[in-house]
Amino acid sequence: MCDGRPVEADCRPGESLLTVLREHLGITAVKDGCAPQGQCGCCTVWIDGEPRVACVTPAERVAGRTVTTPAGLDPDRRDRLAGALLATGGSQCGFCTPGIVMRLAAMLDRGRSGRTDVDRALAAHLCRCTGWQTIVEAVGVVTEPPPPRALDAATARATAETGGPQTVALGVPLGAGGFADDGAPRDALVAVPLPPGVDPESVGARAAAGAWWVVDETLTEARVRAGKVQGRRTTREVEPPLAPPPVDAPPHAVRLATSWVEPAYLEPDASWCAPDGTPATPLANGGAFGGKQGSLAPAAARELADRLGRPVRVVYSREDTVRLGPKRPPIAATAWVDGDRVRIRGRVANADWSGPAATGPADLDAEWITVSVPGPPVGAARAARWAEEAVLVAGARHAAGLAPEGSLAARVTGPTGAIGDARVHVDPARGVITRVEVQVDAGDPLDDVVLRSYCIGATHMALGWVCTEGLAVDPETGAVLDLTIRSFGIVRPAVVPPVDVTIVAGDGPPRAQASDAVFAAVAAATWNALADLDRGHPDRWPAVRTGPGRALRR
Question: How far is residue 550's CA from residue 554's CA, in Å, rounded to a whole number?
Fold first, then answer.
């Protein structure tokens, strides 16, 4: 039984329940974020009333059992959960939330709703967008009808924050955000990227969009033929690949070296196209933090469809996304206050940061040298360059005793004129971050709920960037060694400090990407907070890892 009706599926031995649901039954509300790692929770369903991750559940194990997806939940309970997530901003792109809805529904059915219960439930999930807090808040308002809102204004603010199409609606938390692969014909050919080290001729791969693709009738057959790389986690430590250039800097100068950082958007790259058609965008309901701007999926779908005369789906696995997707480039820099100016001398891996920055204080003198090092591709990461410069400026001023409004505060103005202020509170006795205060000026906010949610999500991402996130990369080959979604160091819900957001209601027009300014401000304030805890700015990121005795814990 599936969602209250008997179903049969003719599947291959070893196929997962997720494959049966999406590929055979067309139930696209169940998402594939990491299959078959079982680490993101996007494919969570109920089996005989118990939440289970479908991507690691063999289909043969559910024969004769009852499977429930979001469509099979009690409609009132399902819509109240979706409405609560909508009311708090607990769903942005909506890729992770169908699985979270299933998990929370099971938790609430057992009469559990305390913070410890919610943390335990969410530990099986990953959300990159919201920063968790708004999801936790949603549990507290499930029994209340959502307040009326102008969802067109909410959609406008969400679109302004992502820089791409974004929808705010009741169906989004339930997976109806219009993701590229969800709308593809299930009888289309499927193309998957050829893994490294595989001879294209040996598997009959086809060249398109500057890469090699294995094309077959089904996703399972394409991945089997390609020899899909399975996720792995290395024991190698995350190490910055660069050192700051030698400079004659004063004693109060700060130094920082960072590692490769994975954008970690939840929906792997996907597209589909009919012959002579327009390919579906992989940015269907979110901006992927800049990580999908150069995705090969649309061009490959169009080229293969035209050549083969049939619709073609291009579907990345999580491992494909990590291997092929651009990362935040590592930097290594020194910054110091020199009279009325802040000077930065730095190196950046494989990215051209020459010339003036997109934004920055008028008294900034920054010079960047591009260094070619083995590593994954780099791209238009969130607030790339100007966030790094904002952090270095704030750190230099802090070290020189010039931090504005207290040692743990930072203010950043983004390229659109949006302003983010952040203050990170710490408990020196325990050595932990206890709370983050954020103030944002985005002009006309359009929708406070959406803007607040994006600012909390940006805070979560900034805390991870400074404290816990990084990728282990082979220094000789440049290959990413961490291919599991849990190896990226994304901060878990149980240790995220409370985030207080104040929205300044500006009189001017809406300013886009205000949460990017918050991201940079929180990163700067966090670095300064760690400096106060550790008697000096940590000279490399990630600076800590979550766990006992670390800065992020409760």
Answer: 10
